[in-house]
Amino acid sequence: MLPGIFRADDPAVQVTFSPEGRHKLEKIITDFPSVLFTADDTLGWVYQFWQTKRKKEVNDSGRKIGGEDLATVTQLFTEHYMVEFLLENSLGAWWAARYPTSPLLKQFTYLRFKDDGMPAAGIFPGWPDRAAKVTIMDPCGGSGHFLVAAFEMLKQMRMEEEDLSEKQAADAILRDNLFGLEIDPRCTQIAAFSLALAAWKSGGYRQLPLPNIACSGIAVTGQLETWTRLAGDDVNLRQTLERHYHLFRNAPDLGSLINPNDVPLRERMFSADYAQVEPLLARALAKERTNDDPVSAVFGAAAEGVARAVHLLAMTYTLVATNVPYLGFKKQSEILKQFCGLHHPDTKMDLATVFVERCRTFVAPECTYAIVTPQNWLFLGSYKKMRINMLENQSWEILARLGESGFESSAAAGAFTVLLILTNRKSGSDHVMIGMDVSSAKVPSEKALLLRQASLKGIEQEVQLSNPDMRVSLERASQSKLLEQYAISPRGIVNGDTEYWVRRFWELPRLEDNWRYLQGTVRFNKDFSGREDIINWKTGGKGMLRPGIDNLAYNRRGVAINLMRSLSCTLYTGELYEQSVTVIVPHNPAHLPAIWAFCQSPEFHTEVRRIDQKINVTNATLLKVPFDLEHWQRVADTAGPLSEPYSNDPTQWLFGGHIVGSKEPLQVAVARLLGYNWPQKKPDHLNAYLNQDSIICLLPIAGERPASEQLRTLLSVAYEEAWTPALQDRLLAAVGFGGKTLEEWLRDAFFAQHCSLFHNRPFIWHIWDGLKDGFSALVNSHQLDTAGLDRLIYTYLGSWIMAQKVEGDAGVPGAEARHVAAINLQKKLKAIREGEDPYDIYVRWKPLSEQPIGWNPDLNDGVRINIRPFVTAGILRSRFTINWNKDRGTNPDGSERLNDLHYTLAEKREARPVTIQ
After folding, report:
1. Could you say which of 28, 429, 676, 834 is the most buried, measured as most Cβ atoms within 10 Å of its Cβ?
2. Domains of the chain
3. How far is CA 857 from the centre of its chain?
4. Which of 298, 224, 306, 257 is closest to 61 using CA atoms?
5. Cβ burial 698-730 (10 Å sphere, 16+ → b, else e)
6. Distance of CA 51 to the CA centre of its chain
7. pLDDT tens digit string along 318-374?
8. What is the DSSP string of 622-658?
């Protein structure tokens, strides 16, 4: 065992250390005597800690534990390209400016220089003149990654500058240079041990100075009266002590955000200066001495508890280097929300941006902070005030845009990041910020390489204040007029409960007055697309989060654009539209062709992404791009006039219901045969050949022709003289059934293809008994009411059962099996008709008194709701993706939106109001 570090009998230490894990960790401790690292030793505990904690993304305060997962256990004491880039271009650049011939510079592979040979990030003239005086803080320390990397750099610097031995330099750095805070006690221990391990590697095991690392998440435990009594009769001092008491009581939620020097604006007239408070605070904290200080516990030092953290929180430093924690406003605890709203009103929407401001207050004047941060605050409208403040009052040195996939861990999927180095001083009018963009690289290793090699872009910082909304860009803004001068782009409908408000149009037999067309997203640029949905408008939008009732775009022509990655677009014809798209509607309708030409072009995507790299851009962003009207009018003139609204896609409500010329003629023909009419379909000569019952059996039953014959007749009438066996084969080949028959396609492929085409919301259901030569029927679900289900059970299936009984009695092969299968199907259908659990319908937005009793579906509730009994019974021809998991969001009363619930018939009947005769 290492003396002073975890007792050998500590249960947390007694873990099995696998050979593979030992090999990975021992690679970084080869300088130590092997006797110090056994299966029962501290490294075993470290390994076990990450193994058991890797799936826990947040602790009680909502912060990601350590910012790392098990995949990084072998990197606990090694460097990462983000860490290296930030430290080498801050601490390393400072060193290069003072010692340009130092041999240490050869080790800095990420340190970038300008053409004149000076460090790209600058020379940091406001820093101390000697490495011994440089102080580095990581306020979100995690496992100590930044501190260990800085230790290795500072060790070489102090050895070179002061002629120290490796051991002397290591001890001096722990004492003078490195400081860390971490909200989680376990991670604090790991960070302290990581730093100690680096020091022991530099000169062997010895008693070390206690690392300047503290847990910022330890709450005070004393009484408020004990604190305020120290202020005597000084009201301001008493109030300030009381405020500090409450802050440190909330330390498990706030951690390093606590700034003992900070006083909210509204309290400044009634607060004492921190210089007055500090000695009293120290006295109060002296009574808070506790054995909960994780660093002291590791190293056997006298426990100081929260006092050590408060001291570090109140200091300022030469360099702050960290990866800020990410946590959106909605996921923050109430304590954290209130704190951020009071102290960081311009950045409160994300803990990451709050921490950018906190890092700034950790930095001494003329000193620097180097951070890994989300990129969204550089361009989102909600952070405009923050950007103005930062651009006007801070000196931006280097901005490296990483984009997506900067982290190896899957836990960070979807994070778009930048590496940013800023100095805490106002920049001059001629200050040039250096930028590089490596977002095109798809994996971290490629990004790391580009950070070393990508060309540097220099742009005057002052120019950023001239960009639309002061968005930070690595490109100079165009001098052209912006699109906002020619068009509007109102936000779409935010309904708050899509499963309740929105349907696919084919889920209903016709559009009643309550339903409206809803323009949706598009996968690629197309004249008319994204027209699958309808929205319940019975309340005129009331009850939705943001109904957009007064939207000025409605009933006008324009361009609808996806707000997600691709920014794909389609022509807009004035309908309601959902929140994941926006529309650009010109002030002058004559400008629509030019705007349409622009939005389809690669230039549009490029211009938008220059100012907004978030996956989902805002509607306001789309109007902030430069637009050369004359140029795009010429492009539009070349392309010709705009198309009239039309679609041959049966999943679009513009589709006219025609079989010939459709993208899916067989699917359309089956739907037409069973009586479905598209919203835009007009009466035609095919109506006389449609099945009036909306139930068609695949085999001849009850005197009716089989489905394939009825379908073939309809196709021949639709195609007229063009209909031939060869055309039939071509149609079947197009759906993967070339050389086969209509009978085979209907039996084996129609339903699966139908589900796929209609987005797993099928309206034609293929019900069968599980045998290929057994009972099968296609049913138009729009007509499958109680009477329709009875016809299916008794008329069609009943006739089939009688026929199989007769054939069985006559000894026909397979008849007995078909009879048994049909009987079982009939039992399930009867159970569905009865509607007892589990073959019931449950509609989560309806009270128990309005839940359907038996098979009594309301088509307005949608296919997902009404198909459940048939899926549960397993009597549909093919499985498809549909579930009844809980929906996103919560109900008005705060409860979860559960769907997989079942009530008994007795419970439903009891809840029904009593009707008085």
Report:
1. 676
2. 1-53 (no CATH), 483-639 (3.90.220), 665-897 (no CATH)
3. 35
4. 257
5. bbebeebebbbebbbebbbebbeeebeeeebee
6. 25
7. 999 999 998 888 889 999 999 999 899 999 999 999 999 999 999 999 999 999 999
8. GGGSB--HHHHHHHHHHH-SPPPS----TTSTT----
